[in-house]
Structures are given as structure tokens and as C-alpha cells.
Queue: 2 jobs
Job 1
Amino acid sequence: MPELAEVEFYRKQWDLGLQQVLVGLELHEKRRVFRKCDLQILRDLSGKTFQRSRALGKKLEFAFSGDLFLGIHLGMSGGLRSEPPQFSSESHDHLVLRFSKCTLVYRDPRMFGLVICQKGRESGDWFSNSGPEILSDAFTLPLFHQYVKRKADWGVKKFLLDQAFFPGVGNWMADEILWQCGLNPAIKTGVLSEGEVSNLRCKTRVICRTALRRIGEKYDDVPKGWLFHERWSGKGICPIHSIPLEKTVVGGRTSAWCPKCQPFRTGPGMAVKKAV
DNA sequence: ACCCCTGTTCGGCG
DNA sequence: CCGCCGAACAGGGG
């Protein structure tokens, strides 16, 4: 489930443990999510203070005293939550952090997620990204044009899913952006008009900002009128045209799109505006 | 029962 | 050697 805003929501679930000392740690070390984790460093977290956390795209980083960092990627089905001190872990709770006032739990049934541990002043190479965050000042229009130029022969859906360019954007966000831009997911980025490129960047930022504000605060608070609500309901209907959505595999992922809002084409087009 | 999946990596193939 | 694509990972939900 977790994309940009859901990741932020889950990050906050662990805020209850901030500035507290980790008094106990339970883990199922054989599980797949620890496949890249240094278990020695992970166990060293015991007795340390949970100082701060941050998110970058779909990655989460939790900083502890002693220059220790815990990194988590939630994969397809991961989630974080806080429980009372006396909580007993359940079958998919792979990592359980005990504090005096709360218990922080990492759960992931499908185990596509990842736990990383590092020691050092810097949080290390895992928690970093080649490009700027979508909502940062560095995510400029000229930079966006460079991206488009570099991937001119990519379908725009595949383009949006590239984490190096769009950290945090996942399948549903990409579909939301394309629908609100009136762009078919299979259109090559090189074919977009100047206005469409500019609109694509703008809508991407607005949707990220709105999603962070709403979903980041309350998991299921998805803005009314968004394609999201129709995406996987048995018969998805375009909120604008009330006609069935198409479901096709584009860029390796199932995509939902409206044939009226998002007609396919192979040549230059005009910028499309839509108010949602 | 069967088919689907909001992510990422890897190996085969052209 | 490179890029694209499907498979694989593993379990839950419709």
C-alpha cells in the first residue's frame, strides 16, 4: 500500500517513542525483511534513545543515539504502528521496539519490505536519492524538462514511477496524476507539448502536496473526486464522464485510466486542463 | 477456488 | 554491453 503520503502517515505512528530509551527489542531474524540487515547493529539499538525520524520518498529513517540508524522500506504491505507497553506481537510483526510508554511495531505480511541498520555520523548511502524531492525548491521546471528529454522514449507512466526522478510516487499516484493531466499512461514523454510538460510537473506537485496533507495525517482521507476512489473498485467509473475505466498493463504495472479524459496518441498535443 | 495486487530486483532475451 | 520485460518474492483480500 504505501506510497509517499502513506509512508509519511506511518512515520508519524512511531512519534510516540521519540526521546525515549529503547528498553527491549524483539525480532524474527530469519524473515525475509532482514535479508540486508546487519543484525549486530540492530541489536545495538537496545538502550539507545530514539531521537528523530524522516522520510524520503518511500524510505524511512529512524535515528538513535550512538550514531545508529534504522532504515525501513515498507514494500507492498508494510506498516508501522504504536501499541501499549504490554502488547504481545502477532505473526507478521517482524520487529517490535519496546519503550516504557509504548511499543512500536513494524508489520509486513508479504515481506517485500526491507529493514536496514547503519552506524555512523551520516545515515549512509541507503537513505539517499539521486534527485531532489518533488516538493523541494530544487524540483524546478528546467530540471523537469531535463528528465523528460532524457527519457523521451518512455511511456509517461513508467516515467512517473522512476524513483530516481519521482521519489515516493507509486502506482495509484501515477494514475491519479495522469488522469488529472488528461494524459494516457502509454504516451511517450517526448511527444508532450511544452504546456503539457509544465502541467505534468505542476499536477505532480499539487497531488503530492495534497496527499501528504490529507493522507499523511489521516490514512483514509483521500480527497473527494480523485480517481483513487474508483481505481480498484470492481467497476471503476471515471468521476468526470461516468464511463468505465480502462485497466491495462503499462510500464509493467496495471493502470486505470479514462478513455475520454486520456486518449492515446503518438504525436504532439495541446495542454489539457482539468479542475478536480 | 482462483485471481488480483499501491514495490523492487534479477535473469533471460533480443 | 544495454534495455526491456516477465518472473519472482509471499500472503491477504475480493
Job 2
Amino acid sequence: MDLGEIDLDHTLSCGQAFRWRKQEGLWKGIVAGDEVVLRKTGDEVDVQTSLSDRAVRQYFRCDDDTEAIFADIRKDRYVARLLRQYHGLRLLRQDPWECSASYILATYANVPRIIQMVEKVCRAFGTKLSEGTYAFPTPDQILKKRDRAGTCGLGYRCDRFVEFARSVHEGEVDFGSLKRASYLDCIRELVRFDGIGNKVADCVAIFSLDHLEAFPIDVRIGRVLEQRYGVQGSYRKVGAWAREHFGCYAGYAQEFIYYDQDARNRTVNKRR
DNA sequence: AACCAGGTCTCGA
DNA sequence: TCGAGACCTGGT
């Protein structure tokens, strides 16, 4: 399948999605309740899955005009370098429920632990797809066995997680309308839920609701903005600056910066 | 063995 | 609206 210019390693290991693993040169993941196996074959990607081509292309945001987007966020030397260095890094379009529930778990935890928590949740509640592989659970599946949540090592995120599942199950969230809403309205709605603050709301907005101007600011991004651009202040203020500077696709720039910081950490750890 | 993590919540100014 | 502290738990 032609997924456009994409580097699977960059795209699937950059920390935006938590259910992809590289095994023996293959990328294996679970998308929309289906197993997906990816293998790079020259310019194209061999995709093994029962998902439709349309669903796969939607997940990998093949509808994005990346050339135009990258041209638009190339506002300075730094981003220009990152675009070159991490050529083929793409954003994904994740399922809004899975994305928001996962990022509620992602607060104040490192990526390995987030992956661990999500995995435990899938094993505790999700539909078994094959030996050792489970789908991300639906809100309903979580509620039916809610007492199992305590065994997933979620810490103080546990109650928020179950409560959010209840909210979604009760129809208190309409992801479709959040997609159609303006970025600011979308964020305003999301932060009303326990466990979703500015940062998580931005992650959900960009990774699953097509609000590409969302610019999640974690500690690392905050440091880069301060040291490289001399910007600091409240979350709202810095975010507004980023959208002003990088434009309506600011979120794409954010992902390159985040990945670069992540890569730096990895090389530093290797030396030790 | 400490330190820290893709932050959020609560509370007070 | 903003800044300061507390916070489950496990990886490194």
C-alpha cells in the first residue's frame, strides 16, 4: 500500500501512540480493534490487516498534504533541521476514545510505564484478538469489570480512568462535534473532565480530533521553547505563542521537537 | 537508592 | 488567571 512518504520507525516510536511494537523488523500494532502488521518494501508499505485500505490510510493521515504542511511550519533553522533529520515522521489519526483514555493514564509517567499501563488495561478489559494480543477496551467493557481497574497499576489515575469511561459510555462526550468545533471550543470541552488538563486536551485534539494547531507542552517542549526561543510563562500564553509562530499546523512542529528531545535522551542514556 | 516522569488538582493571591 | 505543592508508581 502507498502510504506516502513515511518513516515507520520515526512515526511509530515517537510516543504519540502506545500500542506499536517492533518485532524482527516488523511493526505490529492494534488499530480500531484489529491487528496490523507493517513491513517496509521499498517506497511502499506491506500492510497485513483485516482493516479496509481506507481505514488504514485514514489512520496514517494520508489525506494530509504533508509537503504543504512541512513548508508551512518551516519557520526557522531549527525546525528546518528537524524536518530534514526526521524525514518521514508523520502524525497519526487515532481513535478519540482510545487516545483520550490513554493520555489520561499518561500524566506524570514515563513512556515505558504508560505503555505498561495501557497494556495492562487491554489485558484486563479488552477483547482477545490472538494469543497475548488484546484490543483497547470499550467504555462498556471497562464498566462491566470496573473492580479490575485496581490491578492495572494506574495509581491515582485509576478513578479518573474509570470515571471517564463512564462519561463516554453515558454519552457525555461527543467526539464528532469536538472534531467539528473550533480548536479553542474543543479544548474548553475536554478540560472539563477529571484528569484532562491543558496538555492532555492538546494531545487528544491533535492526535485524534484533527486540530493540528494544538501544541502540547510538556516539560521538555517547555524547556526548548524557553532555551531556543526565549519564551516562557503560563501554558495558555506559551501555547498561543507557538500557534502564532508555527502557524495552523503547529502540532506537527511540536511532534518533531518532541521526537528530537526524545532522541537526545536516548543517546545520552546509551553513553552511560 | 534516589530521581523523575508526554500533568492535574486544589488552594490561595 | 496564575503559581506553588502534593501526588501513585515503576523505570532507569
